[in-house]
Amino acid sequence: MVKAKPLILIIACLAAGLMGFFFFYQTDAEKIRSRLDELVERVSKDESENELMAAGHAKNIAEIFTDPCVLKIPQTPYRDVSGEFSRQDIRAYAMSGRARYERIELAIYDISIDFPDENTASVRLTARINAGAQDSKRRFDEFYELACKFKKIEGDWLINRVAAVEVLER
Amino acid sequence: MSMLIDQLRAFFLPNLNKRFVIRAALVAALAFVVFHFFLIPFRIHGHSMAPTYSDGRVNFCNTLRYAFASPDRYDIVAVRMAGRSVMLLKRVVAVAGETVAFKSGELHINGRKLEEPYINYTYDWTLSPRQVKPEHIYVVGDNRHVPMEQHHFGQTPINRIVGAPLW
Predict the structure, then answer these.
(1) What local confidence, expressed as pLDDT, does residue A76 receive?
(2) Which terminus of chain B has fewer CB atoms gathered within 10 Å of its CB, N or C?
(3) Mean pLDDT across chain B
C-alpha cells in the first residue's frame, strides 16, 4: 500500500522543479529578445542623465556587440554609420550621440528570429529612434528595417552585424 | 416609459447568463479576426502624406483591397517594414516597367509629365530617370515641401503592400 504523504511531497517537488525550470530556462530566441530589450534600455536616455551615467551606458551598449562588428545604417542621429567597428568605436559613437541629444528613445517592433546554425541567429526587426534636444532644431525621428546577425560567444548572444534594409529603393 | 427604462437597463446592465457570455465571446472573436487580419487600425505618424493624410489621424488598413488586384497609379498604399506594426503610407506613381524621373519639381513617367491634382504647389526635386523593376511599384509621398533627401520614396516589391487606407 502506497503512503499518500511522501507521494504528495514527491509530486509537489517535481511540480515545483518543473515550474522553476520553465520559468528560468530561456530558449535561444528568448535570450536574443532579452538582449534586444537590454539594447533598448541602454540606448534610451532621458534628460536626467549625467556624463558619468552616459559613459556607463555607452560602455554597456558596446558590450552587446562583438568585437569587431559590422554596421551599415545610414542617417542615424549620430552620423552615417557604415563599416567595421570595434567596441571602442561603438562606445565613442554612443558617447557623442548621447552628448548631442538630451532625450533618446529606441523602440523595436516585429522581431523575427531564425537560426541558420546553433551559434548564429538571423534577426529581422523594425526599429524606431526618436531623439531630441532642448533647442528643437535638433530632432530626429526615423524608422528602420534592420537585418541583424547575432553570434553565440561563450554562451552569450552578441550582435555581430546590423544592416539597414532598403524598403524604398530610390 | 417604464418599458424604455427596462430596455435601457437591459442594454447597459445585462444579465450575465450563458447566452450573453456566448454572444460576448463571439463578438470579441469576430472583432479580433476583423481588426487583426482585415481592417488593421493605424495612427498616422509624420507629414509625408500631408495634406492628404495629416499627422495623428486614425484610419484602417484594408488588407483585402489588393487581394484580387494589383496597386495602380494614384492608389495610396501601406508598405510594411519588418512586420505590420510600422507601415509607410505612400502614393503609387508608377508601376513595373515604367520610367520615373523628377525634373525641377515635375514628375515624369515614361518621359511625359504626370498630372498630380493632389500637388498644388511648386517644389524643386530633380531625379534622373530610373526604371521600375518587375513586380515592383514606385511610391512617393504627397508632401514634397521638404528637400528630396529628407523624403522617403522609391520602388518597393508588390509583396510589401499590406493594403490601402479605408478612407
Answers:
(1) 67
(2) N
(3) 94
Q: Which three cell numbers stand for residue B28?
A: 470579441
Cβ contact B65:B85 at 8 Å: no
From the list B79, B82, B130, the residue facing A125 with the nearest CB is: B82
CA distance A91 to chain B (A): 27
Q: Which residue of A has its CA nearest to B161?
A: A167
Q: What pLDDT, on a 0 to 100 scale, did the predictor assign at position A136?
A: 63
Chain A residues closer than 8 Å to B82 by CB:
109-112, 124-126, 145-146, 165
Picking from A80, A105, A125, A126 by the largest number of B CB atoms within 10 A of its own CB, the best residue to mutate is A126
Find the CB nearest B156 among A110, A146, A168: A168
Q: How far, in Å, CA of B140 to CA of B142, rounded?
A: 7
Spans in chain A with pLDDT lower than 50: none
pTM: 0.86
Q: Write out pLDDT tens, residues A73-99.
A: 876 666 678 999 999 999 998 998 888
b/e map of A14-51 (b: 16 or more CB within 10 Å)?
eeeeeeeeeeeeeeebebbbebbeebeebbbbeeebee
Q: Which of residues 5-34 of A touch B (CB under 8 A)?
A: none
What DSSP letter does each residue of B17-69 carry, written as one string?
A: -HHHHHHHHHHHHHHHHIIIIIEEEEE--SSTTTTTS-TT-EEEEETTTTSSS
